[in-house]
Amino acid sequence: AINNGNPLRVASPASNVTSELADIDWDNLGFGFMPTDYMYIMKCSQGENFSKGELQRFGNIELSPSAGILNYGQGLFEGLKAYRKHDGNILLFRPEENAMRLKMGAERMCMPSPSVEQFVEAVKATVLANERWIPPSGKGSLYIRPLLMGSGAVLGLAPAPEYTLLIYVSPVGNYFKEGLAPINLIVETEMHRATPGGTGGIKTIGNYAAVLKAQSAAKAKGYSDVLYLDSVQKRYLEEVSSCNVFIVKGNLIVTPAIKGTILPGITRKSIIDVALSQGFQVEFFFNLLNEFDMKELRCGGAKVEERLVSVDELLDADEVFCTGTAVVVSPVGSITHQGRRVTYGNDGVGLVSQQLYSALTSLQMGLSEDKMGWIVEL
Ligand code: COI
Hints:
Layout: E1 38-45, E2 54-57, H1 68-72, E3 75-77, E4 80-84, E5 90-93, H2 95-108, H3 116-129, E6 141-150, E7 162-172, E8 183-188, H4 205-209, H5 212-220, E9 225-229, E10 237-240, E11 244-249, E12 252-256, H6 266-277, H7 279-289, H8 294-300, E13 303-307, H9 311-315, E14 319-324, E15 328-337, E16 340-343, H10 351-364, E17 375-377
Parallel strand pairs: 8-9, 8-15, 12-13
Antiparallel strand pairs: 1-2, 1-7, 3-6, 4-5, 4-6, 5-17, 6-7, 9-10, 11-12, 11-14, 14-15, 15-16
Helix pairs in contact: 2-3, 7-10
Bound molecules: 2-OXO-4-methylpentanoic acid.
């Protein structure tokens, strides 16, 4: 280990890394924070480009009390996962998509951002340095959390003079306490997550703090999470606190269109492509459900639509599911809206949701051939 005066700083952790797994209970991973071995840090000044970063021992960081992120919320985050394949190789899922989304968000938040290559290299280095924390195949994944923050001190409202990209990781299992069982959502009618012209479409930290009040109230009443409506007409679906939403009706798979107030989820985008590529299977399952529609569906196939989705359509759907890096594909068992509770068929685990979940996770875990070119093998 090389240290530049800081005993915790290492240039290459390879010698410290053992190939043995960390000694934790791999069978009971939830989505809680667990400290690991290394984090990645890269800094730059306002108006400059990020240059070389480095791995450091995982630990607390030092920030000025006047840092832009602490005072004015000038910060973004990302989320992606690494999987251990059955042959022991490590797989990342579409890391360049996260790099590009971070760039888009940084532009909106007046922050410099690392290049796509810098981001992907930094993610790879962080994952490899923490290899022993990647769950065994089938037991979960290593959640990777890149943070981009205004770390320099400001007092008057302005972009911070210095920025830090920090990447840390934590082994995770299922996001919701329900595990893979269907979740129960409540539609929020008073509070909104985002407004037109605001920052709903980027992954800024403030978007997530803004949902805590509604989410806490919902959880206190026994719901898993909250589904938000648009803030203008108050009748079209936006997203759930931490994920996007899809409905299935007949041979249609529909999700709200991205229009600035909805986070452009990488899982959302991938599920749309997986659904299109799996046309036959989706069609097949619909046929099983609606036998007398078989002929028409065989000709027409399943369609995926991105458009406005009203609450009425939601309540009339055959299936509802959520997508996100953390939640993967979570079936929705019930939706409550203004006191009315609607449950979804098959005990909430719809066949289409199940099919899409299997197709996506098989790809992510390296169990099926990656025809999309989405997997980065380390
Ligand atoms: C993710 O799915 O990666 C997210 O960033 C959502 C977060 C609230 C856990």
